[in-house]
Design brief:
199 residues, alpha+beta, Ubiquitin-like (UB roll), five-stranded mixed β-sheet, 5 strands, 13% strand, disordered C terminus
Length: 199
C-alpha cells in the first residue's frame, strides 16, 4: 500500500510539474506576443509620425542626402534625408521596412498610450525606457564600404558621420535571434545608385 501511495504521489507531482511548466510556457508565449504586438504598434507609429512626415516635409535648401540601404531580405531602397536628419531618422526609416505589407499606412496610430512627447523625442524617450537600444531596434546598420557599424545614438546628425556626408550605402543586419523584416520576398535588382565612396 505504501509503495502504491508513493507511486501515486510521484505521478501526481509529475503531472503538477508538467501543468505548471505548461502554464509558465503559455505565460511566456503570451508576454512575447504582447511585446511583439506593442513593438509593431511603435513601428507603425514611427512610420506615421517620423518617416511619412519627413518625406512630405521636403529637404533642406542645402541639398538632399541620398542613402542606399540594403535590407536583410536582399532588397535595396534609396531614401532621401534632409541635411538636418539624425541617426534616429535613418533607424526609423529602416524600422518602417519591417512592417508587413498587410498593415496599411492609413491605419497607423497617431499616438500611443505610453507615449511621452512628440516626434523623435517621443521615440528616443521610449527607447531609453525599454532599452537597450540594440535590442529595441533588432537590427544593426553598417556602412557598406569601408565596413563599419553605425550604432544608434540620440541627437546624432547624419552629417556628423564622416562617410555619410555626401550620401552613401549602408547594410542592415538583423540581430541573431530576431526575425528579419517581412517584405515581398524577392531581392530587388541593383538600382544603379552609386556614390563616390562606392567607386
Amino acid at each position: 500500500m505504501a509503495e502504491e501511495r508513493a507511486k501515486f504521489e510521484a505521478k501526481r507531482m509529475a503531472e503538477e510539474e508538467a501543468r505548471l511548466a505548461w502554464q509558465r510556457k503559455a505565460r511566456e508565449a503570451e508576454l512575447a506576443r504582447q511585446k511583439e504586438s506593442d513593438r509593431m504598434e511603435w513601428r507603425k507609429w514611427t512610420r506615421s509620425a517620423l518617416v511619412q512626415s519627413s518625406s512630405t516635409s521636403g529637404v533642406s535648401s542645402s541639398g538632399p542626402l541620398r542613402i542606399a540601404i540594403r535590407l536583410p531580405t536582399g532588397s535595396r531602397v534609396v531614401h532621401t534625408f534632409s541635411q538636418t536628419a539624425t541617426l534616429t531618422s535613418l533607424y526609423a526609416f529602416v524600422d518602417s521596412q519591417f512592417i508587413p505589407p498587410q498593415f496599411n499606412p492609413a491605419d497607423d496610430p497617431t499616438s500611443l498610450p505610453d507615449q511621452t512627447g512628440v516626434g523623435e523625442n517621443a521615440l528616443e524617450s521610449h527607447i531609453s525606457k525599454v532599452g537597450p537600444a540594440e535590442e529595441y531596434w533588432g537590427f544593426r546598420i553598417a556602412l557598406a564600404y569601408p565596413r563599419m557599424e553605425i550604432p544608434w545614438k540620440q541627437k546624432t546628425k547624419l552629417l556628423d558621420i564622416t562617410h555619410l556626408k555626401g550620401g552613401g550605402q549602408v547594410v542592415v543586419e538583423t540581430i541573431e535571434g530576431r526575425r528579419s523584416p517581412v517584405q515581398n520576398g524577392n531581392a530587388e535588382e541593383d538600382d544603379g545608385y552609386h556614390t563616390e565612396d562606392s567607386e
